[in-house]
Write a structure and sequence with these properties.
Blueprint: H1 4-7, E1 23-24, E2 28-32, H2 38-45, H3 62-75, E3 78-83, E4 89-99, E5 104-112, H4 120-133, E6 139-144, H5 149-157, E7 161-170, E8 173-183
Parallel strand pairs: 5-6
Antiparallel strand pairs: 1-2, 2-3, 3-4, 4-5, 6-8, 7-8
Amino acid sequence: MNNPEFLNGELKRDEAFNLQPHLRGDLLEARPLRPEDWTALFAVASDPLIWEQHPARDRYQEEVFREFFREALESEGAFLVVDRQTQKVIGSSRYCGFDQGKSEIEIGWTFLARSHWGGKYNGELKRLMLDHAFQFVETVVFLIGPTNIRSRKAVEKIGGVLTGNRKKTIQGKSVEQVVYQIKKHDHRTGSVVLSFEPST
């Protein structure tokens, strides 16, 4: 990154937090989710094995995922994730709950096609999102279902520290989640190349 404020460890307090930049790494890019992405993203999400450890295990069903997709669009913080080599859609993620007073934001709702499991794609996606977020906040949190061991290990791999529990509404129900956080001063910018473009 060539932002001198960020390189000097300063937060951009005088700029608005753009929740949907266009982020590019070596392996993937994340761009703002759009209504016309429905078909390609549902093709990924319709795999039941993606959701087997998630509290919303039925999210592979079309009517359930349609609600997830609608909420993602309304959040104005959701991304479509694309494999840069093949240009195929491989998943989605989201920023949510920006709290300027607490200098905190959540990263969540992440899922990737099983063809892209194994760590390196998720690791790059999270580094891209963390690098951007830490220009504006001091803390990033991840809320994960207690039995979602796969997601918990993935967050621990990128430096997430377990800090407690918090309730989260999933499909209209209040569900207990474990909370991981990463502090700006503990985060190290990865070697990925970032490209920020305005949302369209």
